[in-house]
Design a protein that fits this description.
By secondary structure, this protein is α/β, with parallel strands linked by helices. Helix content is 31%, strand content 16%. Strands 3-2-1-6-4-7-5 form a seven-stranded parallel sheet, with helices on both faces. The relative contact order is 0.19.
Length: 179
């Protein structure tokens, strides 16, 4: 019986939590007003909490309508134990129009003929609002005219869309220049 030579130690070094804490900021970011995730027609509260954590990771803010259940959903989903940058929008269409009027680039995550593939989406160079639609119906038709561009996340499976937290996270990382 021949013995196999011992395998060398792992080639991947996992950073300890202490090292990670030293490399990251020590407190929540203030409103940088550069990148805003806007799930303006939310369906599931758990997804809002997940998206809020992504906003913290990429230095973005979250813009949500003041629906009765949204504040509690954000509080429950925010596992950061720190305040996060949340903008309350009121009426989504009026809020989007104000963002455009103020000079923000408004990018919708939507399946559209003119949509840019996620891989081709450039990083945000100016204030950018990433609009996320309803998880079943997408961005309402009356809001499409307020978009400057649409981005599509390619899929090879049978589904037609991802949930709002996953789709928003992918787009935010790309717009933040981290992918």
């Amino acid at each position: 019986m021949t013995r196999r030579p011992a395998r060398p130690g792992p080639a991947i070094r996992v950073r300890p939590a202490r090292e990670l804490r030293r490399r990251r900021r020590d407190r929540a970011h203030s409103c940088w007003d550069h990148l805003v995730a806007a799930p303006l027609w939310p369906l599931h509260g758990a997804n809002l909490g997940t998206l809020l954590r992504t906003c913290d990771a990429v230095g973005a803010c979250l813009a949500v309508p003041r629906l009765p259940w949204v504040p509690e959903a954000l509080e429950r989903g925010n596992t950061l134990r720190r305040p996060s940058c949340v903008h309350w929008t009121g009426d989504p269409l009026r809020w989007l129009a104000r963002q455009r009027d103020a000079g923000a680039r408004v990018v919708g995550v939507e399946l559209a003929d003119e949509a840019v593939r996620l891989a081709d989406l450039p990083a945000a160079r100016s204030r950018t609002v990433a609009v996320l639609g309803h998880e079943r119906h997408g961005i309402p038709a009356e809001a499409l005219g307020l978009l400057d561009a649409a981005v599509e996340i390619p899929m090879v499976g049978a589904g037609s869309s991802l949930n709002v937290a996953v789709a928003g996270s992918l787009v935010l990382y790309k717009l933040a220049g981290l992918l």
